[in-house]
Design goal:
Layout (H helix, E strand, L loop, with lengths): L9 E2 L2 H14 L4 E6 L3 E6 L7 E6 L6 E7 L18 H8 L12 H12 L5 H15 L4 H18 L4 E6 L5 E7 L1 H6 L6 E8 L7 E8 L5 E9 L4 H15 L6 E4 L3 H10 L4 E4 L1 H12 L4 H12 L3 H14 L3 H8 L1 H4 L15 H9 L8 H24 L7 H14 L3 E4 L4 E6 L2 E6 L4 E2 L3 H5 L4 H9 L14 H7 L17 H4 L49 E2 L12 H11 L12 H6 L17 H6 L7 E2 L3
Parallel strand pairs: 8-11, 11-12
Antiparallel strand pairs: 1-5, 2-3, 3-4, 4-5, 6-7, 7-10, 8-9, 9-10, 13-14, 14-15, 15-16, 17-18
Helix pairs in contact: 2-4, 3-4, 7-8, 10-11, 16-18
Length: 646
């Protein structure tokens, strides 16, 4: 809040002074007009000609500050002169009043909500158009200007990003006409932390939903605790060969090409050609869920057994298990064998992959990151990049604290997984062959474990680099330390090192220090073909994708969740219980006290007589009586009654 107008109060600008005057007039329910105004002073008065209220402010010498030099805070106008419509409630003033409501980019604040908010806080009635323009002004204040102005601020923001985060890599490509083309950002903390993550990178792209649209490219991996670790982001015009190749080449320049590197993505043609050009030695795996959708579309099948057999075959560790599941799948769907083999068994199965994919068989980590930016993708380019930085900054701080607070040798998730495997290993029998070789009996199957080669015939041990159930059964019978059998990628030490780097904040735009070559550079937005109608904000479903509709746990309705539910909830049906006025309650009390009751039946009510069984009223049965008035009032459903949700 800017507070009230007082003498000798100093404002940072004339706009701040006028904003304070407008908010004060709305809060105190009066109107004013500007009597005189120029670059050195301003005089405002109440709109009523006989009212004595007035304010004078002067600009301080050699400064942008303004000071109130005179304030007559007394109204002599009539009370009925005040109305609910205020001439000072302009769109930019409304924007200043509601801009704090938009701190969260995902906040939904409709023009109707703006009208209700201004009515409750200031008693001002706004038209829909003023409320809409006020919301747009609030967006501009919090989103670093309009979408076009945001591109012009981007070079200065990127300069400050590299100044506050030394070691970060930023690439900005422009056309000959100084129009935006490509952007690549990799934080220094991400570059340092990737050395302690498994060499499996998930890449994906999603559409931006702002005025100038575009595509967001992401590269993600898993940390020691199986959580998303952001590596790099990029922005381009669309998903084409040139954009994907440019982005992946920047990823290679920053993170290198590990001999064991695996790239996981969907089957987009541009991604395949870009991976072959940028990472010729890396193995390119396919997301099994994207391939499943393609399989469903090609064979027009929604069979649940098809999905179950396919997922089980893709995740199988050994070849014997894969062949059994694959044969069952191909028998259920004629033609699936040729289709899946043409894709390449090594690209979508764990058992045929030439290198370790660990547990990363899908692009879910990239999809989840894109989903977290669902509302953020509507922001202008500079505000969007800043929100991504804030998200990564928050993640690094939270996970650094969690990793440093971990007391076990492994990460929290891996420690839990090992504990579950230890429990299953308790029921297995171990037969020793020699010092290093063991035969483990697990139900109807037996597995061979070689502790010298770190292998098990189930292949989980060598592919995931974590002790499987059979290895832990051997550990239980021997002196091996199970933690020494785990890969360093799962240890608490690597977990802490992953988040040792810090993503530093960037100061407010008023504090930026940008050298002239960058500050004077005019970056223009890209050329975009304007399409008639509203811009699409929800993506088109992929081939074979089954859309799921959210269900509210509060009202049981569909299409929304509990957080956004606005439906009234009906009162629950009351159950009739004992009443103090009920003759039955009195009769039962008398019986308990040992008093003699009259066994003769009384006249039943009409409803009871019509619905009672033939033996009602028998001399040996208790006499039926009229129901209690309170019980009758509370029994049955209450139509038309609702309970407003607080």
């Amino acid at each position: 809040m800017l507070g009230d107008i007082e003498e000798n109060r100093v404002f940072r600008s004339k706009k701040e002074l006028m904003t304070c005057l407008s908010i004060t007039s709305m809060r105190k329910k009066f109107q004013y007009k500007v009597f005189k105004s120029n670059t050195s002073f301003i005089v405002v008065r109440c709109v009523h000609p006989s009212c004595s209220w007035r304010v004078r402010a002067n600009k301080l010498i050699e400064s942008e500050y303004w000071m109130v030099t005179k304030h007559v805070d007394k109204h002599t106008c009539l009370t009925d002169f005040k109305t609910t419509r205020r001439r000072q409630a302009t769109s930019w003033v409304v924007g200043e009043c509601i801009k704090r409501r938009f701190i969260n980019p995902g906040r939904v604040f409709r023009p109707r909500d703006v009208m209700d908010d201004m009515k409750q806080r200031y008693g001002v009635e706004l038209s829909y158009s003023v409320a809409w323009r006020g919301r747009e002004c609030a967006y501009e204040n919090l989103r670093l200007g309009t979408p076009k102005q945001s591109y012009n601020l981007l070079p200065g923001y990127l300069h400050m990003l590299m100044q506050t985060n030394p070691g970060s890599v930023v690439n900005l490509e422009v056309t000959d006409e100084n129009k935006f083309q490509y952007l690549f950002i990799a934080f220094a903390a991400s570059i340092q932390g990737f050395s302690y993550c498994r060499p499996v990178i998930s890449i994906d792209a999603t559409h931006l939903k702002g005025k100038y649209r575009g595509v967001l490219f992401t590269a993600m991996c898993h940390d020691a605790n199986q959580q998303i670790f952001p590596l790099a982001i990029g922005v381009g015009d669309s998903e084409n060969d040139a954009a994907w190749t440019w982005f992946l080449k920047r990823v290679k320049d920053v993170f290198g090409e590990n001999p064991d590197l695996v790239i996981v993505s969907d089957r987009h043609r541009s991604i395949r050609s870009a991976v072959e050009e940028a990472f010729p030695r890396a193995f390119h795996g396919i997301c099994i869920y994207h391939l499943l959708n393609n399989l469903k579309t090609k064979f027009k099948s929604k069979n649940k057994e098809l999905e179950q057999h396919y997922i089980a075959a893709a995740k199988a560790y050994n070849l014997q298990e894969f062949h059994v599941l694959f044969y069952t799948l191909c028998s259920a769907v004629p033609g699936a064998k040729e289709y899946l083999e043409s894709v390449g068994l090594d690209r979508w199965t764990r058992s045929h992959a030439p290198c370790r994919r660990y547990n990363i068989m899908t692009t879910n980590i990239s999809e989840s990151f894109n989903d977290m930016l669902f509302k953020v993708r509507e922001l202008p380019i500079t505000a969007f990049v800043n929100e991504v930085r804030l998200l990564c900054q928050r993640w690094f701080q939270q996970r650094r604290t969690k990793a440093n607070g971990c007391s076990s040798r492994m990460s929290t998730d891996v420690e839990k997984k090992l504990e579950e495997r230890r429990d299953r290993a308790q029921t297995m029998d171990v037969i020793c062959a020699d010092q290093y070789t063991f035969d483990v009996v697990d139900g109807d199957h037996n597995y061979c474990v070689d502790m010298a080669l770190w292998t098990c015939t189930c292949r989980k041990f060598q592919l995931d680099q974590l002790p499987c159930d059979h290895v832990l059964a051997v550990v239980r019978k021997t002196q091996y330390d199970p933690y020494d059998l785990c890969s360093l990628y799962y240890t608490r030490e690597f977990w802490c090192e992953t988040y040792r780097g810090v993503i530093q904040p960037i100061p407010h735009i008023s504090s930026w220090v940008v050298p002239p070559p960058i500050s004077t550079f005019q970056l223009n937005p890209p050329d975009v073909r304007t399409v008639a109608g509203r811009r699409r904000k929800r993506r088109l479903p992929s081939m074979g994708e089954e859309l799921t509709t959210s269900k509210c746990s509060r009202c049981k309705g569909k299409g929304h969740n509990r957080a956004t539910c606005q439906n009234p909830i009906a009162l629950r049906q009351s159950e009739p219980g004992p009443s103090l006025l009920s003759p039955i309650a009195g009769a039962s009390s008398a019986t308990e006290l040992g008093h003699q009751t009259d066994p003769s039946p009384s006249m039943p009510p009409p409803v009871a007589a019509a619905t009672a069984p033939p033996d009602v009223g028998h001399p040996t049965d208790p006499s039926p009586t009229m129901p209690s008035p309170i019980a009758a009032a509370t029994a049955g459903p209450h139509f038309g009654q609702t309970l407003a949700d607080s």
